[in-house]
What does this fold into?
Amino acid sequence: MNQRDLLRIAVNLPPCCAPTKLRAAVLEVSSRASAERERATRGSAEDMAALEGGPFLMGSEDADCIPGDGEGPIREVRVEPFYLDRASATNEKFAEFVKATGYKTEAERFGWSFVFQGHVREKLAEMIHPPKLRWWFKIDGADWRHPEGPDSTIEGRAHYPVVQVSWNDAAEYAKWAGKRLPTEAEWEYAARGGLEQKRFPWGDELTPGGRHLCNIWQGTFPDVDLAEDGYSAPAPVDAFPPNGYGLLVITGNTWEWCADWFAHDFHLLGTRENPVGPASGTTRAMRGGSYLCHASYCNRYRVAARTQNTPDSATTNIGFRCALDRA
It folds into this structure.
């Protein structure tokens, strides 16, 4: 019986009927995965926040949680001390990686990537978009150097988050830098900035005093973005104030890849000590939301919110930041 079958049986049986040995087996699998999780210590801690770790309340049971995302239940989780990049990886940093290694991203190798409708330079009737996602278009020549297509450029965007990078691309960058991608637990611990069970890195109110503190959608999604926060596309990585841990723009702007394979239920019976996702899967976890998030469609800019994407996918609203273990 594989890990997923084991978990499915354990979580679907009522507590009074779930065999103790089965629950213990799930916990053992999860604890082993935690103990054997990837470590990285050789990278530089420059421009990284030193986080002390410890216990925190992870997850949410808010009424507006998105069904199937697996945000809850709220549970106490403990993470070890680690470093996290203060900001998302930038075009400038990613260019250094490419120059040093000659790396070609998956979008470059595929020869195309997804671009949001509002950023497509020339709309054509024959453009392809995924089912039920009419606002995304498959654009030939879109990649990290040309985020919106071949006639776009990152010139003047050195300190903007690199986008059009897949999970696999982000993992290769992290490896080159002597770092790794953060686990979901580490990401949420960091994003909360020391606040307990608040919806956002700064508190429960989205726009305290009418002030915008992140880059998300205002207006009617997906056709009218009023850009009241100042941006209708990715903003510079330092466009908004840091949270309590000194982390910049960790909510909205661009989604951030996490190390974990995504599962909506693995955490229900798994370890609460440095938890990681299942050993395998089809999609990787993403956190933080993006400039395309809106309460009417995708309010995943809350710190407990989560979503997923296949590890070879790239878009104009997905980026990443790296973690480093503290010796």
Notes: The domain at 3-325 is CATH 3.90.1580.10 (paralog of FGE (formylglycine-generating enzyme)). The mean pLDDT is 92.
